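Project standup — Tuesday

K.O.: blocked on the structure for the chain from last sprint. Re-posting the sequence here as requested.
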Amino acid sequence: MNSDLKVGAKHSIQITVTEDMFAQFEGKMVHPVYSTATMVYHMEWVSRQMILGILSEGEEGMGAEVKVKHLAPATEGSILTLDATVVSRKKNFIITSVLIHSHEKVVGEGEVSQVILPKRKIEQMISSKNNR
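H.V.: unblocked you, prediction finished:
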């Protein structure tokens, strides 16, 4: 892992809300709006994009924690911007703050914590879990 990613670094993505992002459970739609589960996915995705450039060969990032507040609905066709900012970097842990907004409306906010580990360590962790 190189040290190019500093506290204060920023990265943004835009997504358009589609029907497959609606709130649903077991294939049954609850509300025709952007789901919290999809919000978490996009928060992790924008945060992951920030670490891709600092991974050394043989390393990989893993999600460690997500904190999310879903503050407003976003309907189909809404264009959402997810702005991620590195707020902490200690050893192999990176925390990003993420703001999700559509124009001037804040749709959600939260934090994503990631840990960077050697791929072989991750493989060992997965193997030991499968041996239960």
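K.O.: great, moving the ticket to review. The mean pLDDT is 94. Strands lie at 10-16, 22-25, 28-34, 59-70, 79-90, 93-102, 105-118.
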